Each structure stands twice: as C-alpha cells, then as structure tokens.
Amino acid sequence: MPDSAKQSHLPITISLCMIVKNEEATIERCLRSVEQIVDEIIIVDTGSTDKTKELVRQFTEKIFDFEWIDDFAAARNYAFSKATQEYILWLDADDVILDQDCQKLLELKATLSREFEVLTMLYYLSFDTDGNVLYQIRRERLVKREKNYQWIGAVHEFLAAKGSQLDTEIAVAHKPVKHDSDRNLKIYERRQLQGEEFSPRDLYYYANELREHNLYNRAIEYYQKSLATKQGALEDNIAACASLADCFYELHDGENELKYIYQSFQYSTPRSDFCCRLGFHHLNNNQIKQAIFWYTLATQLKTANSSWGLVNNQCATWLPYLQLCVCYSRLGDYQLAYEHNEKAAKFIPDNPMIHHNRKLLQSKLNIEPSKE
Q1: Which of 47, 116, 301, 351 could bridge across to 166 with cysteines, CB 3.0–4.6 Å?
Q2: What is the CA radius of gyration of the chain?
Q3: pLDDT higher than 70, residue 161
Q4: In percent, how much of the chain has pLDDT > 70?
Q5: Where does the record place the Glycosyltransferase 2-like domain (predicted)?
Q6: Following DSSP, what letter does each residue of 72-141 receive, concatenated?
C-alpha cells in the first residue's frame, strides 16, 4: 500500500498554537479542555508577569517568548511558525471547548480527509444566564500547517486562509473573566498618530473600539468612513450599519437610526436582528401594526449556522415572539398575545417574563392555569 494511502487511514495530528499574556485566570481551564485532543501545545508569551507560564508548564514545555510590538498578527504568525504537526488549531486563553464539542473534534480528528486545508468552527461569543448562546460567528479555526497561512492585521487580526474548506458544527466557546478594555483602542490611536493609513477593516474595527467606549460621534465618523470606501467586507458593512443604528439610538436620533437599519438592506436581504430593530422602533413610537409586521417577518427568517456574520440568536428565536405578545396585548387581542408568548416559551421555558405573561393572559382569557 502506498504511504499516502496508509496515511489517509490515520488520524490527523494537531498543534495548538496560542499567544498569551497574564492569563492565569483562564489558561488552565482552556488547556485542560483541549489537552486530550491536540498532539502538541505551542504557547507564545508576550510578557506575562503573573503565573501564566507556571500554569502552562503543567501541559507543555514548548513556551516561547515574543517581545510585544503592538501587533497581534506578528505574535500569532510566530506561534504558527513553531508548530510541527499536520494541522494547526488556534485558541485564545479565555476560550474553551465544551465536552460535547470535544467529542465532535475527536471524531473529526479520526476521520478527516487530508484533502481539507481549512476547517471552520462556530464561535460562541456570549451566553445568557441559562447557558443559551446569545451571539455567534464562524471562524477559520483548524488549518493545514504546510499551507503556511498567515495572520494579517495588528489589531482584530484575521487568518488569510483559502483552500479546500470544510464548515463544521463544532463550536469554541468564549468565556472571558476579564477584559483589557483600553488595549486595542490605544493601539489604534498610536497607529493613527504615526500617520498610518487605515484599511476599510481597520476603520470598522477602530469604530467598534470607539463605540465600546461610548464615544458615539467619533464612532459614527469612522463607521461612515469605512462604508464610504465601498471596499469593506460584506459582513463588516452590515455590522457597521447595525452599530451606526445603535450609536444614533444612544444619541436620540431616530431618523438616522432608521436610515442605517434600512441601509443594511443594500448589502443583504433583511435579517432577523434588523427586523427586530425596526419592530422595536415602531413599538416605542406606538406604531403597533408596523411593529407587528417587522416582528412577524423576523420569525419567518431562518439563520443558517454557515453564516459568517454575527448571529443574534435571540432575534432568531424567542425575542420577536415575545415582542409580538406585547404588541397584540396592546391591541387587546389577548388570544394572539397568549399564542405568541407560548411560542417564545418553546425557546426559553423558564424565563420569568414567560411566566408573568402567561399568568396575566390566562386571567384575561379565563383560562385555567396549568398545574405543571
């Protein structure tokens, strides 16, 4: 049997590559979640002064120092350069692979065809108090080492990985316990002072940092600059419209809020989160019929897990039903309000809002309360 045929029947091998700095609060949890899956752990430390390295040595001796130069891509590329296995998996220190996804990843490792060069996974960005995923995106997560894919971008870097691709349903969960809120903003401002010309992507992510610091007018300026280039990525343009709407909402400028919600439709067909934005706007203005139209449309739109954009799972599941309950209640149609509350309950059965609405509407409709 040829060597290539023998290899195709063997599990792939994986190097985990990470960059870290002062991650003692999360690094052990991260590495423990993945240690049985990977064949090699590469840790690049960019200047830790806490117990990060000490904790990492429980899992690997392959710890490399890298002088921090305000460039995340440079650090990640250095980590990738140290890998020796067939494929490279990357994580951040506050990421974790949950048990059910560990099993999926082990199965993938045992069966993956080596023809695939890029594997994408879901990235769960946040969770509600019941553990339901609130927001998710999709990222390139596992790549073939021999392709020498490179990271690009000093901040909010991305992996420029093009090749034979497999989109998986395996997820990585983001579970932060702290956040260095000023770090990225300061990097952008230093780059700006140095006279660097920002790409459309940089303009968009700089605007994100400004918005997160409640600098809404400056954020608006840079979102608009990003859109004006007409060269931004599709999902960045759509997200910029959402963020512009958020900024104008905070500034009590409803006209411009609506403008950018509708502008998102230039880039893609309506999505559930934008429909919910419009429903919320009309509900706040007591335009109930218009609110019902948009919330109903939100319930009819399907969000595929293959989406590369930010997915708001609330707007794609229970939220529009719950808001329709409010709308129909205001119109005095308590039967339809009750029905929509029960539809929302299929997604969040234990939510206090569901129980409150149910009790109130059962009294309005003279329905005997359930004994359950």
Answers
A1: 116
A2: 24
A3: yes
A4: 95
A5: 15-130
A6: HHHHHHHHHHT--SSEEEE--TTEE--HHHHHHHHHHHHH--TT--EEEEEEEEEE-TTS-EEEEEEEEE
